[in-house]
Each structure stands twice: as C-alpha cells, then as structure tokens.
Write a structure and sequence with these properties.
The protein is of the alpha+beta class. The chain is built from ten helices and twelve strands. It has a six-stranded antiparallel sheet. Helix 2 runs antiparallel to helix 3, helix 7 runs antiparallel to helix 8 and helix 7 packs across helix 9. The longest helix has 20 residues. The relative contact order is 0.14.
Length: 258
C-alpha cells in the first residue's frame, strides 16, 4: 500500500513514505531533500545514472536536481525525507553560497540517526526549539562530513530565465517570450536548459507551479486559492501534478500539515 504523510516544524517539512506501486515522475524540488531508506530499496535516476539506496542508505538531493523514484521490487519501500529551504540550510551552516552534495547516497550511521531523530521529533510534534536544535546538529554533521562543496552560481542566462518563470507562474509558459530576450531559438533554449538542469523548461516551470502551490497551501490553508494563483485549470489539474511530485493530493497534504 502506498502512503505518504507530511508534517512541518521549524521551517522543515518531513515526509514518512511507504511505496509499493507508486512511481514519482521526473521532477525537481527547490529545497534540499535529505532522507533515509528504512526498508527495501529506493530506485531512482539522478543526473543520468541509476541510483539504488539500500536500507540505512542516506539520500542527498540538491535543489533543482531532477530525479524520479520508485520501489526497486514488489516488496516495496519505506523511507523518511526532510525538505529544507536552501536559505535556511545556508543560514544554519554559516554559508553565503549554495552548497551541493557531491555524493548522492552515503552510509553513515551517526548522520542517519540525526536525520531519523529530527524526522521523529517533527512527526511527534515535539517543541519547535527541540526540532531547531536537532536540525543544527544535523547541519553541523553534514558540513563536517565533507559531503558538500561550495559551487558557483547558475549560468547568468539560465538564472534570468528561471527568474522570469518564477515571476509568471500564474500564466502559460511561452518560450517565445523568453527566447526573444536571449536571442535564441526555442530549440536552442530547450537544449541549453535541459543540459544544465536535467529537465526541460516546461517540466521546470510545472515543478515551480506545484512548489508554489504547496507554499500557498501551507501559508493560507486554502487549496482553491492555490489553484487560481498558480494558473491551474482546476483542482483536478493541480492534484494530478501535485500527486506526481508529493505522492498525495493537495487536500491530503493540507490535512497532514494542519
């Protein structure tokens, strides 16, 4: 049986998931995603290569790193995941620039326990102060582990294109509007964007709409306003894409975090 439960505390979203038949479509998050495989094997494609996370495997996803996901076999999969805004991680780590995890899967018992301890504290509704302390401990462990490195900022053209998309989420994506500013054909732009991000401009734009809808649902507690503000045709349209990224419908997600 497929089950996805979300809870949020101290600015961090925790997911407890059980998967058998469900498959994530290729997508990317604006946040860091840090998780632990508890049972079974997590099977996903990342940066053009197949990754298998066995029990106790720590999965490290960078912001905007495209991936899919599924259980490796019919026995299914259980895992926990923490979603962390880049600015929050940078603040706690004392970093000025985005850092990137250089290794997608590691096996490190102390780090594994810090991830599980924080996720358990969030799900059991422990005080936000305790969750913040556990997050600090986790971040310090990540920084000390040399799993991450400072990286340069996005290609300037791609950054402008992404900024344009974020500013126009309520509209339909029109590549001509972007490409005319950068003096590229639509096909040159699609090829460049996909080469740098791993997903197409349309997929990226749709992911941004879903992420924005999630933020609005968390902020306002209203699914229907998110439909309108993010330019979805109707609730069914939002749910279709929301579930492909989060494993739950917008209403299910709202019921979990409230």
């Amino acid at each position: 049986m497929d089950k996805f439960v979300y809870k949020k505390s101290a600015g961090i979203t925790a997911l407890s998931a059980s998967m058998t038949e469900f498959k994530y479509k290729k997508h990317a998050h604006q946040e860091y995603a840090i998780g632990v495989t508890l049972r079974g094997i997590q099977h996903y494609n990342l940066d053009g290569s197949l990754q298998l996370s066995y029990p106790n495997g720590i999965m490290l996803f960078n912001p905007e790193q495209a991936h899919d996901g599924m259980a490796h076999d019919h026995t299914g999969l259980d895992y926990v995941m923490l979603y962390i805004e880049p600015q929050l991680l940078m603040e706690v780590a004392g970093k000025k620039n985005i850092v990137r995890f250089s290794t997608p899967i590691v096996y490190d018992y102390p780090l594994e326990q810090r991830i599980i301890n924080l996720s358990q504290a969030i799900f059991s509704a422990q005080d936000e102060a305790l969750c913040s302390e556990l997050f600090l401990s986790l971040t310090d462990s990540l920084v000390r582990s040399n799993l991450s490195t400072d990286t340069k900022k996005d290609n300037a053209l791609l950054k402008k294109a992404k900024d344009w998309m974020h500013a126009n989420l309520e509209h339909v994506l029109r590549l001509d509007d972007i490409c005319s500013e950068f003096h590229l054909s639509k096909f040159q732009f699609i090829r460049l964007f996909k080469a740098h991000t791993g997903i197409s401009p349309y997929q990226y734009f749709l992911n941004c709409k879903v992420e924005r809808a999630k933020q609005l649902i968390e902020k306002n507690g209203d699914v229907y306003s998110a439909v309108a503000e993010c330019g979805f045709v109707d609730l069914t349209h939002l749910n279709k894409h929301f579930k492909s990224v989060y494993g739950a419908t917008a209403f299910e997600y709202l019921s979990h975090i409230n």
